[in-house]
Amino acid sequence: MRKSYLTGKNKSSATGNKYMNNQTKLLFADIDGTLIQPDQTLSPSVTDMLKQMANAGHGLILSSGRPLGSILRVYGYILEQIQSRFSHAFIIANNGAQVYDCECKRNILEKRLPLSLVDDLQKLADAYHVHIQTYTETHIIAAADDAETKSYLKKIILPVMISEKLTDALDLPPYKMLALSLSGSDYLMPFKKALTREYGDQVSSVFSGSGYLEIIQKGADKGNALRHVAGHLQVPIENTYSAGDSENDIPMLLAAGHGYAMANADTSVRSQAPFVTAAPFDQDGICEVIRNLLEN
Asked: Residue 88 is part of which domain span?
């Protein structure tokens, strides 16, 4: 249905010329509520469409608020299911604060939060009685083994370290922090407003789902990450497609040549997206996006 935003540390000197093909298209796909089913699997129809896309020489960029390790598990699972490979495989992790080249196994974009800021944000979260966590390259770092931690681990299969002071468990500045509430997003709104008021010149905060508030360096988002990948590969923006369902997906939907909100997306997401799928994610709505990518 038609309804009529590049900065960062680039660690690669490659221009992407060896990949350049004017017919190549890139699909930037959110994971949860977009690509995979509630049970964390691919439906047979989506599996078939992804295989067609890979065999036609197009690229898949998984784009999520999840940490890199979790997304790599999903990417490996997808390759197992389709029994094929994509021409370009990148991961936009941590809500755009990290872009990872799956072939070269290295970051091509990093935006990290200073450790001193992590301490300040944890103190602010404590003042509002909000669970907040962060990440190393391999672990979730939480201050307590509370209900939010236990719930999160049911979805994100990564090891967790408990550290009362989060920075005590960090060797490097993290890409993001995540505020969680089992009571939903409304509970987090007073904290979000205080975060914007006191640290809005340094960080951005955006919901990636009910009760999930992503906190990243200002300027980091999925839209800027999409532009970075397209520029790195020298793929025209008009050859980029994106799909998502949450507030954190909006910059990606607006940055792509063809941005699709899922039918199950929040009203604010659907109202801003250039296109909306006819079916929700759990009825294979992403197939409409892939079909248009293949046919256009």
From this structure: 17-111+221-295
Domain count, the chain: 2
**Which residue's entry shows tokens 């299911």?**
81
| Chain centroid to CA 171 | 23
The helix or strand, by DSSP H or E, that contains position 288, with its residue range, turns out to be helix 286-295
Residues 211 and 134 placed together within one structural domain of the fold = yes
Quote the DSSP letter at residue 32.
Answer: B
In a domain, 57, yes or no: yes
pTM for this entry: 0.89
Residue located via tokens 């094929």: 84
User: 45 in helix, strand or coil?
Assistant: helix
Helices assigned H by DSSP within 83-182: 115-127, 147-155
Q: Are residues 97 and 126 in the same domain?
A: no
Q: What is the CATH number of the domain that holds 188?
A: 3.30.1240.10
Residue matched to tokens 């047979």: 44
Cβ atoms of 19 and 86 closer than 8 Å: no
Is 201 strand, coil or helix?
coil
Question: Which residue in the block uniquely carries the two structure tokens 């350049």?
Answer: 20
What number of CA atoms fall less than 13 Å from residue 48's CA on the CB side? 7
Per-residue pLDDT, 21? 54
Last residue of a domain, one of 217, 247, 266: 217
278 class by beta-carbon count within 10 Å (0-12 exposed, 13-18 middle, 19+ buried)? exposed
Residue 7 lies in a domain: no
pLDDT in tens, 29-85: 999 999 999 999 999 999 999 999 999 999 999 999 999 999 999 999 999 999 999
**Rounded Cα–Cα distance for residues 185 and 193 (Å):** 12
Q: Which of 197, 217, 237 is the last residue of a domain?
A: 217
